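Q: Major facilitator superfamily (MFS) profile domain-containing protein, please. Structure only.
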Amino acid sequence: MPAVVMSSAAGAAVEFEAKITFYVIICGIVAASGGLMFGYDIGISGGVTSMDDFLEKFFPEVYVRKHRAKEDNYCKYDNHTLQLFTSSLYLAALVSSFFASRMCTKLGRKPTMQAASLFFLVGVLLNAFAVNIEMLIVGRILLGIGVGFANQAVPLFLSEIAPVKIRGALNILFQLDVTIGILVANIVNYYMSKKHPWGWRAALGFAGAPACILCFGSLLITETPTSLIERQKLEQGRAMLEKIRGVNKVDTEFQELVRASEQARQVKNPFRNLMKRSSRPQLVIAIVMQVFQQFTGINAIMFYAPVLFQTMGFKNDSSLLSSLIVGALNVACTVVSVALVDRLGRRALLLEACSLSLAVVLLICLFISGFAWSWDLPLETRTAGYAFAVSSNMLFTFIIAQAFLSMMCHMRAGIFFFFAAWIVLMGLFVVFLLPETKGVPSTR
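A: Structure for Major facilitator superfamily (MFS) profile domain-containing protein:
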């Protein structure tokens, strides 16, 4: 039996019928593979950064400091160029997200995802065959453009094809693939660290695999009904809506999409329209949630986990193995979030994260658990608003990636109290200001 989803338009009750179709599941899996690209890159950079062969070739002063440090482990990786190797990707993603927003609107979600995979593949080649720091950074910038395009298009695509009944779970497929990508990267780091002197090249080169999955997999899927309707391809949009919903009775939802598209078309400057008073709550929530996400410290741990564990006294193999354990736990808890998000709602899972404590490996693992089923929930916004959300995420990801090793050098263990204070602020924000979106359709 098809699910009946309640919405409202002009004050009247509206019913949207939908089945969970095999085609929707396939589309979700293919599109969410964009998360593999992002996740693999998050996980791989920290491991490569800790590899001696990589440091000796590109950052000899860090290599010397790493092996001479006896008492002050906190500062041996403090190098702005080394941090730029990680952070430059996210600065590029910040800028490219606005171009990706326009491409999503003008050409569609599918071409944007394909462009993401192509940028990423070129960046992978430059990184894998780099002979100097300039090639590394240019490669990272191209990877960042790919990430910016993917992070703009994929969650939007997933949100628009998903029936409301499983919208939360389908959207979290992207984050699930991010965590799987991180785990795979941690496994690759662990084994490639033993392959001298080329292990780091293989580790960076394997990032091309998820990009190929997205590039060729996207040939199997088509555009979302919303995107087709936005571009005045109404017959195609209706046919696709019937296909992904698995029912013929789509008149109500189709008319709702057409109405929303007509209203959107009347807005000449969607970015300026976001600044209007009626749009401020959604815009503020979209941006603040992304800022809070980064100030949990989650990406600082994911980027620099091997470095962090080495700072705590772990040897190279032990630090990489500990990172692998953290990555595995992240995947497991994200699977839990897929099952629970549409039952318990977003706010309950977000608040759960704010109640967990922190302290070295065990409590870092608890922290990872809380984050995996909470703060990484996607936001359902349209292209302009989503560009602000993605760019905000990337801006503060860049700040954390660029500053973390220096902050650790100066703040030492106090850096975790810094992140803990932000987690308290997030909890207060969720309790008093964040509305629940469980069961609310994405059409307006």
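A: Brief note, in case it's useful. The radius of gyration is 22 Å.
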